[in-house]
Design goal:
alpha+beta; nine-stranded mixed β-sheet; seven-stranded mixed β-sheet; globular
């Protein structure tokens, strides 16, 4: 099979010639990370990937190397291996605290060891310790990921750089949680774990990058492959990066073929247990940590297999769309400079231009402050020609500046979207480069469930994990735009999503197949041109059928029945497990902290890495008495398209919080420096305005040296936000008032309204914590749309009664299990989303 591969725009993405202040190097060699190799095997809409990182110690003493790197946010990491000196050590997945103890103990003993940890859905940390002088160590990560499909094309996106992120908040007085260059703050207590130093332009290609993608259409009619951002070669279904490409932007490959509705049933292989440590070499037996016991996990406790359901949307009917309230948020912060600002303005203007006279809208542009178009009233305004013109005029004048204070504009936008009688839509256009993702989700998670949230991520190294989580909580769409050429296609998708879905209230009915309760990933709705892919677990033999039920735009029923087709492979189970874990982690983020045990158990049961677990590999051989005497944090590339700041550039942001003092590390005693952070006491700003971490090339002006204290491996925990029922009672009262106002709705509309109310109440129940009466009411209301036999009138009366009680004096049993009256807990470990 030979398919011609074309560029989205020939020549546009060729690497620019190196230019800058000089090169960072030492007489002993370069930085510890020598190479990154990515081997991707794409089969239809799934992909298996092996990532190989090669480290070398160029110094005269044992070394510990730290590398902060990205992976696809929906990928499931399922295996880890360390290779050195003809020895191979298989990694073990353990609870994160236990894995860190094992690693630190091994390093102190002089044993070679490595640990891989997740910091964000798309940001990971690799530490490799006791690399002896001149030695090379290779670590391999195995992962599986789904490929999103829309409008006849699947997309394989692999991120290659962690971009600098805006860090808000007040610095914590404790020692840093990690080895990055930003200070930990009360808003981002693990900021030092997600902010690697960044190389300034002029550094000779520091890392050898190799990426190969093997494409098997698996019976589908593959008609075209398109690559953006990188120069590639293609032969017989194999796509390769050309030599010399750098790790400064995402790799994107789009595959055009026709999808079809299908149900695939994949039985589990052998019973899954935590992977035992094993090694080959001069001797055998690895130290898996005598202090930790690896419990035997029954891999069939939750099902016998995984199903993958793909449903194509029906043709659009002529039903008229209802009026919409649209809040449009545009990020104009410093990291949005250059082509990103141009693309963001175009995207926002396109959304405004497509609004109809029946719609209302608001445009909020934000950096350190929030601004609105001049001459347009505050709040939502009718989408008249005059108002739309002034909004587009405002967008055209915007330039990048300042810091990314995202929480306040999102709160303001959600405050505008309060009319349940209209379709409520929030559109966020940004690169997502913030560090306080968990704080935003904690504060807004319960309110996002009441609106449709669409995110447009514009960058060549976008924060896809965070933007995907926002869109998921708001049951919306996340579009990633890596170039201006991609913008028009992405905006077509958003325009469809802003419109009404074709089928809502989706539910599944099994025939000859037992679907495990609570295992099905989010069903959502069906939109024009957007196939829906659903994963879940089943028990029994791999045969049977599933019928998908829903309601059309006109209120009529819709269904599609699909017969199961048996298949083999490990990827579906891993992809399902990662989605299941992500859903539990998001519930944890909005207040359900009791889920920690369940998250760890599910991660270990299915062998998939998450925020609460880590892979650790320990060699039994002692190679470095006394442990590493030198530690290096691998600096990363400045993302392509970002502008490098001057060392004394002013920060164009309002003063917020003091950053950490500048940090310098001597490379191998040769006097070459890496630098990070800003001047002590300087306000935190976006990297493009001098507030980010950068490595200083040789010959650059050098400031005073600052010694950095040794960082502990456990972070200072952050104080959790107390979730008293008093916090949500005003929202419950508002929901009760709206419910009483909707008494006159016709039966189909009453059913849809109760289902929407149930989804909002479920978020509020999670926010106050625990299983309670509000949770039970939310479940019953949410289920009524997919249950034709549900007594809508009885549910309506019950909702009025319970909301009356729950929004009153607080004596209802619905407040049990909440945070009311509890003493303020100690701060959780930094990797926990408190």
């Amino acid at each position: 099979m030979t398919v011609q591969i074309t560029s989205l725009k020939p020549g546009e993405y060729a690497p620019a010639p190196d230019a800058g202040l000089g090169a960072l190097s030492t007489g002993k060699g370069n930085l510890p990370l020598e190479s990154v190799e990515v081997e991707a095997n794409i089969t239809a809409l799934t992909c298996g990937v092996e990532v190989t990182q090669g480290f070398r110690n160029p110094h005269d003493v044992p070394l510990e190397a730290t590398y902060i790197f990205p992976l696809p946010d929906r990928a499931a990491v399922t295996a880890f291996r360390m290779e050195a000196d003809d020895r191979v050590v298989e990694g073990v997945l353990k609870e994160r605290g236990q894995a860190r103890q094992d690693y630190d103990r091994a390093i102190a003993r002089g044993q070679r060891a490595a640990i891989a940890e997740e910091e964000r859905p798309d940001v990971f940390t690799m530490r490799v310790g006791n690399i002896v002088p001149g030695e090379r160590v290779t670590v391999r990560l195995t992962l599986s990921q789904p490929l999103p499909y829309e409008d006849g094309a699947a997309t394989f996106r692999f991120p290659l750089v962690v971009a600098p992120r805006y860090i808000p908040g007040t610095p914590l007085p404790d020692l840093a949680a990690g080895d990055g260059v930003s200070a930990d703050t009360d808003a981002v207590p693990d900021a030092s774990r997600i902010t690697p130093p960044v190389l300034l332009p002029g550094f000779p290609n520091p890392v050898r990058l190799a990426l190969t993608a093997r494409v098997d259409p698996a019976g589908l009619d593959l008609t075209e492959m398109r690559s953006s951002l990188h120069v590639v070669s293609q032969e017989e279904g194999v796509v390769r990066l050309l030599p010399g490409e750098r790790l400064d932007r995402d790799f994107v490959l789009r595959l055009s073929f026709d999808a079809s509705s299908a149900l695939t049933l994949v039985p589990d292989g052998e019973t899954r247990r935590p992977a035992p440590a094993a090694e080959t070499g001069a001797d055998t037996g690895a130290d898996t940590g005598a202090d930790g016991v690896d419990a035997e996990i029954d891999g069939e406790a939750d099902g016998d297999g995984t199903f993958v359901l793909t449903v194509l949307p029906p043709a659009r009917t002529d039903a008229r769309r209802g009026p919409r309230d649209v809040a449009l948020l545009l990020d104009r912060s410093g990291s949005m400079t250059g082509w990103k600002m141009v693309a963001a303005r175009r995207a926002a203007a396109r959304i405004v231009d497509t609004l109809s006279s029946a719609d209302r809208f608001a445009v909020l542009s934000f950096d350190s402050v929030v601004e609105r178009p001049l001459g347009v009233d505050a709040g939502l305004v009718p989408a008249t020609d005059r108002n739309r013109y002034r909004a587009v005029e405002h967008l055209a004048r915007l330039e990048a500046r300042g810091g990314t204070e995202m929480l306040q504009p999102m709160e303001e936008a959600l405050g505008l979207l309060e009319d349940p009688g209209r379709e409520r839509v929030l559109v966020l256009v940004t690169d997502g480069q913030v560090g306080n993702e968990d704080q935003i989700l904690e504060r807004l998670g319960s309110r996002l469930a009441a609106v449709r949230v669409h995110t447009v991520g514009i960058d060549r190294a976008v924060n896809a994990g965070f933007l995907g989580r926002l869109a998921g909580l708001g049951a919306g769409r996340c579009e990633l735009v890596e170039s201006e050429d991609r913008l028009d296609e992405a905006m077509e998708h958003i325009h469809r999503r802003i419109g009404s879905p074709l089928v809502t209230g989706l539910s599944l009915k099994a025939e000859g197949l037992e679907v495990v309760a609570g295992s099905v990933t989010h069903l959502g709705s069906l939109y024009s041109g957007v196939p829906l892919t659903v994963y879940g677990r089943y028990r029994g033999a791999s045969r049977g059928a599933l019928t998908v039920h829903g309601l059309r735009e006109d209120g009529g029923p819709w269904e599609q029945r699909l017969e199961g087709r048996p298949a083999e492979g490990d990827a579906p189970r891993a992809i399902w497990a990662r989605a299941h874990l992500r859903r539990l982690e998001d519930r944890y983020a909005v207040g359900e902290h009791a889920l920690e045990h369940d998250i760890v158990a599910a991660s270990l049961r299915h062998g998939v890495l998450c925020r609460f677990t880590a892979f650790v590999a320990v060699d039994t051989r002692v190679v470095a008495e006394g442990g590493p005497r030198h530690r290096v944090v691998q600096p990363v590339e400045l993302p392509s398209g970002w502008e490098a700041p001057g060392f004394a550039a002013p920060i164009a942001a309002a003063p917020m919080a003091a950053s950490a003092p500048a940090v310098f590390s001597v490379m191998g005693g040769e006097g070459t420096l890496m630098a990070g952070g800003g001047a002590a006491g300087a306000p935190v700003g976006d990297a493009a305005f001098g507030g980010g971490p950068f490595a200083v090339p040789s010959g650059a002006p050098r400031g005073p040296m600052f010694a950095r204290p040794s960082s502990p491996r456990m972070a200072p925990p952050a104080p959790p936000v107390p979730h008293s029922p008093d916090i949500v009672r005003p929202q419950l009262a508002a929901e009760l008032a709206r419910l009483r106002e909707q008494e006159a709705l016709a039966a189909p509309e009453r059913r849809r309204y109760l289902a929407d109310l149930g989804s909002r109440l479920a978020a509020l129940a999670a926010y106050v914590g625990g299983e309670n009466e509000l949770s039970a009411l939310a479940r019953d209301l949410s289920a009524c749309e997919g249950d034709p036999a549900a007594d809508v009138d009885a549910l309506w009366r019950r909702a009025v009664e319970r909301l009356t009680a729950l929004s009153g004096d607080g004596t209802s049993a619905g407040t049990t299990g909440s945070a009311a009256g509890r003493p303020r807990a100690q701060r959780a470990s930094f990797w926990k989303r408190s």
